[in-house]
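request received
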Amino acid sequence: MLWNRTGLVLFALALAIFAFLTAGVRAGLLVLVGLGFGLVLEGMRFGFAGPWRMIVTDRDGRGLIAQFLAIGLTAAAAFPLLAAAPDELFGAHAPVGLAMIAGAFVFGATMQLVMGCGSGTLVNAGSGNLVGLVALVGFIGGSFLGTLHLGWWTGLGALPVITFQGLWGADAGLWITLALLAALGAVVALRAAPGKRMPPRRLWIAAALIAALALANLVIAGQPWGIVYGLGLWGAKLAEAGGADVAATAFWSVPGNAERLGASILTDVTSLTNIGLLAGAFIAMRWKVDPGAQTTNLTAASWIAVLMAALVMGYSARLAFGCNVGAFFSGISTGSLHGWVWLVAAFGGSYMGIRMRPILLRPAAPAAERVPA
Amino acid sequence: MSASAPARPSRPVVAFIALGLLAAVVLLDSLRSPAVDLFAAPPPIALGSGVAPGGAHCSGG
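response:
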């Protein structure tokens, strides 16, 4: 066990040093931030999709309240930072639009089908969850495909970018954000069953650590924590390797995106934290004495449903200007109205996805029940 | 008669496959993309650097 854990520490250090030597100090720091995310999310079982399901199915609001706490803690520092350094830092600000709302709704539904959201898919794959691995493949493909049609979808109708800072100023915007989060927490606490309201100590610590890592991401990278952009970039790189002329498409010919497409993925912020996140989840899983059982086996049709749902999840995340991390967590914590709209739409979709789960995800017959040939 | 369900790989095996796929993406990219010019790399910390961030984020269009 000691050798195993020593090896895991060395693996983490080697990954950060590799990024440092090949892409610079910032890249190494961002891999370390990503490793932190993976360790906390997997090691302390802090999730997004699970708590959204638990409040509906079990009236368990502890995980959801911990999410609001993490977002509030992040916002408390992110608002002043963004106000103090507007030329060096930017928030996860995006327009509210028809496609954005529909995308968030569909994302919410599909994340319940693949049993993980944006960060959850990376964590699940890194920690050896077979559904997570299949979902990651679909998520990468969907995130890329979404970039090909984003212009058409956003053309259906969208408001200008609206931020709480723009509406009320940085100070009042922050207080309104914190008040809304507190009100939502109160609603969840009222909905939750007795004994399932107050998060356990583990989740308080995890929420504080997630907030600290999200702020480190903002300060180091100049932009908030995100997931989807990096996965879409990986899909674009793979498509290019397969012969597709990705650079000629509208999304990837925009200067910032074209620069990322033409450069190493080790220069892309979200790719670096995604790499660290997946590796961190792997380390957290291997650190345990017992890595846990594999997920329930599914029928072949259900595996196809998982792959398709992940493809749609990636596509819809692109239309929604982010997943639970880029839109919900980072959007709200940096003052974007689209983060709040995303929350409402995705929660509605999540409710539908919970209902669809038993229909689409069917366990395969256990070996003992099979009739011998 | 129910369909035969194949044996599932353990969590460590699946995790190693995930890491392998990730490594393959990074390796493929390193073969196709130019090496990073470390002298042109961004400052270690964006805050206080005076440099505007690149802008590649999920919230971007």
